[in-house]
Structure formats: structure tokens, C-alpha cells
Specification:
By secondary structure, this protein is mainly α. It contains 10 helices and no strands. Helices cover 69% and strands 0% of the residues.
Length: 216
């Protein structure tokens, strides 16, 4: 019977994750669907590539925020009758729901982004120190390689190492989630991995303002 309490929270977390900030910013402020430009991905990196930092940074911040917000539902709404250990599993479930919403958004034809920003937001709520460490690695790899995809993949693969071996996390659910993240992000970057192997993956242009091919 306790599971009945979870249904509205999981649905709410999914709907929060489904808010397609990349798509809505492109359509409302620039009159385009970013999924028709650049990499075709509804994520902050592609928004920066197509529309520039002025559009991309708010999208990134919101994607991170919605991952963090979804996890907080368990604390704010509450899960009556659950032990602290069980509440942690609920928080993990809400994180999954938010990421699922971002990748398959109900408000954008179930065609969303790769979930990196939303995963980062959920991670801030669940593993704040681990995310900070991995973020440092992400920035270093991105600065050296200028490949966002490679930076995301390396950071994801390193994440369970930091969580389990460096920080000594022993909660089974959090350990499993860290491993799932290390599998999930490379899977969503399969095409990027192929392009990296072929040598035709686009490098990130730190000075980019907007893609001249986008009709604004």
C-alpha cells in the first residue's frame, strides 16, 4: 500500500524532467526547433552550438535544476511510512523518472536530449561531492580535447570510481545508480562514439555565438 504514495511523485518527477527547455527556448525566442539543426539533440550543447551562449547557458542551468528538483520531491512532499533507507531509494527512483522525462519528454513528442544535464542535477542532490570532483574532470577533458561528448563519457565512466572507491559510498542503491550512470551516458552517446572513432566528431567552439546556418 505504501507504493500508492509513490505514483504521483514519480509522475511529477517525470513531468518535471519532460520540460523541454532546449526546444521551448528555440521555438519561443528564436522561431526554430533546435532538433532540426546542429547535432539534432535537444540539449544545452546543441543550443549553444546553434543559438549561442545566451540561449544555451539558461537551458543548461534549467536542465540541471529540474534533475535536482525532481529528487527533492521526496523531501518536500514526503513519503509516509518509509524508513530513511527506503526514502533514499525513492529519491533514486525520482532521479530515474526525471532523466527518463528529459530523454523522452511528454511535452516535445518524446524526442529529447541525452540527459547529461539532468543527471548532473540529480547527482548534485544525491552525490554532491562526487559530482564536484567529476565536474572538474569534465572541465579538464573538455579544455584539452574540446569534445563535449568525450568529456561526458569519461566523466560518466569515472563517476562510480569516485562514488564507490574514492568516497566510499556503501548504500546499495546509490552504488548501483552510479554504475548505471556509467553505462547510460555512453549508451546515449553511441553516435558520438562512432564519430570520435572516425575522427569527424565536431569540436566545441568556445567562442561560438550561433550557428550561421540557423534561421533566426
Amino acid at each position: 500500500m505504501l507504493l500508492i504514495y509513490l505514483i504521483p511523485e514519480v509522475v511529477l518527477a517525470y513531468l518535471i524532467g519532460s520540460i523541454p527547455s532546449a526546444v521551448w527556448v528555440g521555438r519561443i525566442f528564436y522561431g526554430i526547433d533546435v532538433r532540426d539543426h546542429g547535432s539534432g539533440n535537444a540539449g544545452a550543447t546543441n543550443v549553444i552550438r546553434v543559438l549561442g551562449y545566451k540561449a544555451g547557458i539558461p537551458v543548461l542551468l534549467f536542465d540541471v535544476f529540474k534533475g535536482w528538483l525532481a529528487v527533492q520531491i521526496a523531501s518536500w512532499i514526503g513519503v509516509p511510512g518509509f524508513s530513511p533507507d527506503q526514502v533514499e531509494y525513492v529519491r533514486i527512483m525520482l532521479a530515474f523518472a526525471a532523466v527518463l522525462g528529459h530523454v523522452f519528454p511528454a511535452f516535445a513528442g518524446f524526442k529529447g536530449g541525452k540527459g547529461v544535464g539532468t543527471i548532473a542535477g540529480a547527482g548534485i542532490a544525491l552525490y554532491p561531492l562526487a559530482v564536484l570532483i567529476v565536474l572538474g574532470v569534465f572541465i579538464i577533458v573538455l579544455t584539452v580535447s574540446r569534445y563535449v561528448s568525450l568529456s561526458s563519457i569519461i566523466s560518466a565512466l569515472l563517476f562510480p570510481v569516485v562514488v564507490i572507491l574514492v568516497l566510499g559510498e556503501r548504500h546499495p542503491g546509490l552504488m548501483v545508480l552510479a554504475l548505471v550512470i556509467a553505462i547510460f551516458i555512453p549508451l546515449t552517446h553511441r553516435k558520438n562514439i562512432s564519430r570520435l572513432i572516425r575522427g569527424d566528431e565536431k569540436k566545441f567552439d568556445f567562442s561560438r555565438k550561433k550557428d550561421s546556418g540557423a534561421k533566426l
